[in-house]
Model the fold of this input.
Amino acid sequence: MTEQTYSGSCQCQAVQFEAELDLDKTVVCNCSRCQRLGWVMAFAPRAKANIAQGATTEYLFNKGRIRHQFCPTCGIEPFAFAQGADGTEMIAFNVNCLDGVDPRALTPRQVDGRSF
Done:
């Protein structure tokens, strides 16, 4: 797969987005948050994403480096903000929230977030 534009939303569709993502580069993490949520992540620079609609509520934990965004109505976390290793502003998108994508059909790379 190569980069494509995907759209997605939270469950109630109050928060909607579009992003250029490469679903061959998805990631799953075993940290205390991602494991519980069943996150499958795809990353994009903030410049290649459009948060089209909706206000989110923010949650920070551990070292507070990742700004988790969730819908205040339905509670779904469609994305999170963070900086890449090179300082680029990035967004981690919850592939479970993408329209027309089956995240269980992907083969994500495993990341040991528990050790960070």
